[in-house]
Design brief:
single chain; 5-stranded mixed β-barrel; 26% helix; alpha+beta; 2 domains
Length: 454
């Protein structure tokens, strides 16, 4: 308990010191003639340990801090940053931002967020949970997890490493519209990656756990068993003949489908014309059974935040209702470019939740599909956001008569995101809570599977 008290005390005193620093930064910039000013401080502290074959492979410590400032002289903007928080450095970084502004062209869309949209009373989302663990104890955890995994089956011959990471962060933002906000957060994780080998060859897989709160991490022995089972299932993988069949994106990778959607509705991609969803508001995109929500205030959520990177209050919103696109993800700048209002998404999306009209388990989804492909891993970055074309390498399991038959590898799945979203048949109840995008497995009506020729 004493470690937590000491750490919280250090955090509180640092928070106070950084608020004072931001106040001084804004004061200096205003004295230099800036009409608007915004500044932020990011502070991060943590370490990670990797154990491989019962030996310590790496121990990495990090302690980072960054001050970023943007000044506006009318509609011209200049930005600068510094990792040095000394008095002289602060003067220099403000001067640098002002100097840069003097060389930039006026931008009619530049400026701070509207004062009425700022988070006047940011909620406490319980995002900070200190883990009183040191590197030596982390090494012991890693060795224990690895030994447990290797003991599951003699076909698991090699460990690719067990990594434990613990991180604490502090974020502060202030602007000349009398806004000052801050919040601490934490993120802890443990991963175990293994290699299994038999006469059919070698396969790699593993598992991981992540949480704001270390007490909510999956127990070490449980994680080891999950990792071992995952890699053993991959043995005896086969290739498929090219075909077009129904596909299930396992919950662990289903979030990638929604992440592509979020990129396509981000303001920057929209005003640059680099999205297949330009001018798509109020149009049907998904099948009518799909709803997608943003819920930034989930307690301890991995994607939670009380305000965005401009101080705008985050709030619950509906992105997709019965398949129809209801909203984009906009910062103040991108909103002005598009003739809209910011959605409080400067810095990204916050806790995305996908809902369908079914509550089928993964096993029930497989039975519903009857014959097709269960995808468990995607390879490469083959998504064209301009056209929506989708093509990625994949591995998974072949399904016949509603049962897993054998693992498959060296295949490519292809389609177009518009068609894929429209062809969603059902969403599973097996939600993966290790992501800021919360979705169960997704069953698609069909996709093209490129494998070997007959």
């Amino acid at each position: 308990m004493s470690n937590k008290v000491d750490q919280t005390f250090c955090l509180d005193s640092r928070q106070t010191a950084y608020k004072n620093l931001l106040t001084e930064v804004l004061h200096i910039a205003k004295k230099k003639g800036a009409t608007q000013v915004e500044a932020s401080i990011s502070y991060a502290l943590g370490f990670s340990v990797t154990v491989r074959m019962q030996e310590v492979e790496t121990i990495e410590h990090h302690r980072d801090k960054t001050l970023e400032i943007s000044v506006y002289f009318g509609q011209t903007k200049g930005s600068a940053s510094s990792a040095d928080f000394s008095v002289a450095a602060i003067e220099n970084v403000v001067e640098a931002a002002c100097r840069i502004a003097s060389f930039t062209s006026p931008d009619p869309f530049a400026g701070l967020a509207e004062p009425s949209l700022l988070a006047k009373s940011p909620p406490d989302l319980d995002l900070y949970h200190f883990w009183a663990i040191d590197p030596q104890r982390a090494i012991e955890f890693g060795k224990d997890c690895e030994a447990s995994a290797l003991a599951v089956d003699n076909r698991i011959a090699i460990s690719e490493g067990v990594t434990l990471s613990t991180n604490q962060d502090l974020y502060l933002y202030a602007n000349s519209n009398d806004f000052m906000g801050s919040y601490p957060s934490s993120r802890h994780s443990l991963s175990c990656n293994l290699v299994a080998k038999d006469k059919s060859g070698m396969q790699r897989d593993g598992s991981y756990t992540v949480s704001r709160n270390p007490t909510q991490l999956v127990p070490i022995r449980t994680l080891a068993k999950q990792a071992a089972e995952a890699v053993l299932k991959r043995l005896h993988a086969r290739r498929l003949v090219t075909c077009q069949v129904p596909v299930i994106f396992h919950a662990e990778i289903a979030e990638s489908l929604i992440r592509a959607f979020l990129s396509a509705i981000s303001g920057e991609n929209l005003y640059r014309g680099a999205s297949f969803l330009v001018n798509y508001l109020d149009k049907p995109l998904f099948c009518n059974k799909i709803n997608i929500y943003e819920k930034p205030h989930v307690m301890q959520g991995l994607g939670s935040a009380p305000f965005d990177a401009e101080g705008v209050a985050t709030q619950d919103r509906t992105l997709v209702s019965q398949g129809v696109l209801q909203s984009y993800l906009l910062s103040s700048y991108s909103a002005r470019k598009l003739g809209l209002q910011t959605t409080g998404n400067a810095g990204g999306a916050y806790n995305i939740i996908l809902e369908g009209n079914s509550q089928l388990s993964l096993e029930e989804l497989i039975k519903k599909m009857d014959r097709g492909l269960l995808l468990t891993e995607l390879l490469g970055q083959g998504i064209n956001l301009v056209t929506g074309d989708y093509s990625r390498g994949a591995v998974g399991f072949w399904i016949e008569r509603g049962q897993i038959q054998y693992p498959v590898e060296e295949i490519t799945v292809a389609g177009n995101l518009r068609d894929m979203y429209q062809n969603i048949v059902a969403i599973g109840s097996d939600i993966d809570h290790r992501s800021s995008i919360l979705t169960g497995s997704i069953l698609l009506e069909n996709m093209m599977i490129a494998g070997c020729s007959n």
